[in-house]
Design goal:
The complex is a heterodimer of chains A (290) and B (422).
Chain A lengths: L3 H31 L7 H19 L3 H26 L8 H22 L14 E4 L2 E4 H23 L1 H11 L1 H6 L4 H26 L8 H14 L4 H22 L4 H15 L8
Antiparallel strand pairs in A: 1-2
Helix pairs in contact in A: 1-5, 1-8, 1-9, 1-10, 2-3, 2-4, 2-8, 3-8, 5-6, 5-8, 6-8, 9-10, 10-11
Chain B lengths: L1 H30 L3 E7 L6 H20 L8 E7 L7 H10 L5 E6 L1 H13 L4 E4 L13 E4 L6 H4 L2 H7 L8 E7 L2 H16 L3 E4 L2 E2 L7 H10 L3 E6 L1 H14 L5 E6 L5 H7 L7 E4 L12 H15 L9 H18 L4 H10 L1 E4 L2 E4 L12 E5 L16 E5 L12 H5 L1
Helix pairs in contact in B: 2-11, 2-12, 3-4, 8-9, 12-13
The chains are: A mainly alpha (290), B alpha/beta (422).
């Protein structure tokens, strides 16, 4: 028989994990949803961020959360140069669909190899003591290793949303996603704006990587587990909507956990992606799409 | 005196001649075409921790073998590719090994799913395949040239859970319910079948046996489902990365039972132990080998010292109790068949491996007709008294207490689980 404890824990756990997925997907929502760049290497950048946080933790004993403060601007610069390369090699020539996809696939595999050669294939983890701590509220458990990435991801999303909605540059980025030609006619440089937005998406990946290190042990190929989920969340949320990304991620997290309880964990991915298909059939633009 | 001088001169001459002939033979062996042994091995992905450890052990074997003059007068060369822990990559790798690299012999990569993908290729080419740490890979195929390198016996489906149930039989009160946590892959299904059979034989009720998808990383909900079923025993049969995440979820949720664990692959690697630290306390697990006095075969400790001297520099499991000695023994057995039959033909090698007892660093091995060990030799360990995550905690075997079978016991089981966990 289904107990209240089991049900409430499944919902809370789904909420916490879903919230973290939103943090991982936030950058993909910007690059894929707003800029129309299928950066399949986005989860690989997240893993890179996790390894950078790990390296800072090992070298300077920095907590992963503090490491995120240093990782984020470095990843902004990396994103800046990655977009510059992508733009010159593909976008400018109009080869930005399949070839661009191949470019990011290549980046992903090269990135994995670099991590393997640098850090080896063993699992790496955060030695922060709080990762082994769990708080209980009645029958409901709140492991800090899940609560912290949830809160951290929420901060990432709120900050990114505030930047896009409340700053001049952010609103211009939203404009370039809707009509780059009109923006160019108004004297703005769409390429510069896209460069800023793509750099922002990679910076968010770096920050999410530091949170991933808190959540679970990492290994170079762990990003592959996130590819399907990240793009499903970006599409379900409405391609470019950060609030939609959060809602979609949390819904997928909770649906996966409830499916696990009622039908078994093996059904969880099928039901979650089935939900995605049904939603897109009824509402092709996603939950928050226009 | 003169005669004495002559005899002395003859002896010296003979020794010099023999030495020179030996040198000539060794140098001609090393000058000959290499004898190539091909395989895939996980160097990335979730199986890579054990895969890298296995590869280092195999390199050490090749160096040892070449120092002895190679095989059939030819130097041994290992030809290997990273299968990225993905069974999908295995068939093209073995096709390349056989058709392009023209290897003479093949062995498998690490673990059940990788062996499952390599076995059809070996069958197509009628070649011997040594399968490193597979569970029930040949149970249905019955290929007469497959030889499992794991001491799990001719009834592999039922034998994985046997040490767990043998120890559970000694518990008081007698357990009457069991839950199983296992992935939705061949390894998991074989483990599940074994647990169901063992439970049925003991009138034990299986209260939870839902599988989970292999890509799953968070197990808190699954563990809570098990907790809600309130079983006396929890059998966990998982792959390396899953073992770490399930162990974490068990600690976080506070799952308790008389005994938890049993089939958690890779849990004894230093990697897993240092990630989990005290969270691993109380779990029981199958083990194939430890450097305990009763299990030390000739050459085992020499190998281990060579391995440990190089492991840290090569970035692999520095302790090497888990898969490394088996990977070395894997090639030892194949080489002894080649040396004794003076052949590379699958039929002759398989006949030799079936008919003879093989001396290896992990003990004497005798194969049964199904290509698994004629006499299984698994035991059950419990993690006890681990206080920190420091690697120094795991260098010896004090934290790995052998709790069964009785002839190998090094300590008593602490039950229920939470008593050992705290």
């Amino acid at each position: 028989m289904l107990s209240f404890s089991l049900l409430s824990n499944a919902i809370v756990s789904g909420l916490l994990l879903g919230g973290f997925y939103a943090g991982v997907a936030a950058g993909a929502t910007i690059s894929f949803g707003l800029l129309d760049i299928a950066n399949i290497a986005h989860p690989a950048f997240v893993v890179f961020g996790a390894y950078c946080a790990f390296a800072l933790n090992q070298r300077f004993h920095l907590d992963p959360l503090l490491a995120a403060v240093f990782v984020t601007p470095v990843f902004y610069a990396v994103g800046w140069f990655a977009y510059q390369l992508y733009h010159h090699a593909f976008e400018r020539r109009g080869d930005d669909s399949m070839r661009g996809l191949a470019f990011f696939f290549g980046l992903m595999f090269v990135g994995e190899v670099v991590l393997i050669l640098t850090f080896g294939v063993d699992y790496r983890y955060s030695s922060a003591e709080y990762t082994s701590t769990t708080f209980k509220l009645g029958p409901v458990a709140f492991p800090l290793r899940e609560v912290i990435p949830f809160v951290g991801s929420l901060v990432i999303l709120v900050a990114a949303q505030a930047f896009l909605k409340r700053t001049f540059t952010g609103r211009a980025i939203l404009g370039v996603s809707q009509d780059p030609i009109a923006l160019r006619l108004m004297g703005a440089d769409p390429v510069r704006l896209k460069r800023i937005a793509f750099a922002l998406s990679i910076a968010l990946a770096g920050a999410a990587g530091a949170l991933l290190l808190v959540l679970e042990p990492i290994e170079p190929a762990i990003g592959r587990d996130f590819i399907g989920r990240v793009f499903a969340i970006a599409v379900l949320g409405g391609m470019g909507s950060l609030p939609g990304t959060w809602v979609a991620a949390v819904m997928l997290g909770v649906i996966e956990n409830l499916t696990s309880i009622f039908a078994g964990a093996s059904w969880a991915p099928a039901v979650a992606f089935g939900f995605l298909l049904v939603t897109l059939t009824v509402r092709p633009s996603g939950l928050f799409g226009r | 005196m003169g005669q004495g001088k002559t005899s002395f001169g003859r002896i010296v001459g003979l020794l010099v001649g023999t030495f020179a002939a030996g040198l000539l033979a060794a140098s001609s062996a090393l000058a000959a075409d290499p004898l190539k042994i091909g395989f895939s091995m996980a160097q990335s992905g979730p199986l890579a921790g054990s895969g890298k450890s296995a590869l280092l052990a195999m390199k050490i074997w090749a160096e040892d073998q070449n120092a002895k003059g190679g095989l059939l007068g030819r130097p041994v060369q290992l030809v290997y590719y990273d299968d990225q822990s993905s069974p999908a990559n295995v068939p093209p790798i073995y096709t390349k090994l056989l058709d392009v690299d023209k290897v003479d012999l093949i062995v498998s990569g690490y673990a059940t799913p990788i062996i499952a993908a390599a076995l059809p290729i070996a069958m197509q080419h009628d070649m011997v395949l040594m399968g490193l740490f597979g569970l029930a890979n040949n149970a249905k195929l019955k290929y007469d040239k497959y030889f499992g390198v794991a001491p799990i016996g001719e009834d592999p489906v039922n034998v994985l859970a046997k040490p767990f149930f043998d120890v559970a039989d000694t518990l008081n009160p007698k357990p009457s319910t069991i839950a199983v946590i296992t992935p939705d892959i061949q390894f998991g299904h074989a483990a599940l079948e074994g647990v169901r059979n063992a439970a049925k034989g003991r009138n034990m009720k299986v209260v939870y046996d839902r599988t989970f998808p292999p890509s799953m990383t968070d197990f808190s909900t699954v563990v809570r489902e098990v907790q809600a079923a309130n079983p006396d025993l929890v059998f966990v049969a998982t792959q390396p990365a899953q073992s770490i995440n399930v162990a974490r979820a068990i600690a976080e949720v506070g799952l308790n039972a008389q005994m938890i664990g049993g089939g958690m692959t890779g849990l004894q690697t230093t990697d897993s132990e240092t990630i989990l630290g005290p969270q691993i306390n109380g779990l029981v697990n199958f083990a194939y080998w430890l450097p305990a006095a009763k299990l030390q075969s000739p050459g085992a400790m020499d190998f281990l010292s060579k391995y440990q001297a190089r492991a840290k520099a090569e970035g692999v499991d520095p302790i090497g109790y888990y898969v490394a000695p088996w990977a070395y023994a894997d090639l030892q057995m194949l080489a002894s068949a080649v040396e004794e039959t003076k052949s590379l033909e699958g039929d002759k090698l398989a006949a030799y491996l079936h008919e003879n007892s093989l001396s290896t660093i992990i003990g004497e091995v005798k194969y049964g007709p199904g290509g698994e060990w004629a006499n299984p030799r698994q035991f059950l360990i419990q993690f006890q008294n681990i206080k920190t995550k420091e690697p120094s905690e795991f260098t010896g075997t004090d934290h790995l207490v052998v709790v069964g079978p009785p002839e190998l016991k090094s300590g008593d089981l602490i039950s229920p689980f939470d008593k050992a966990a705290h």
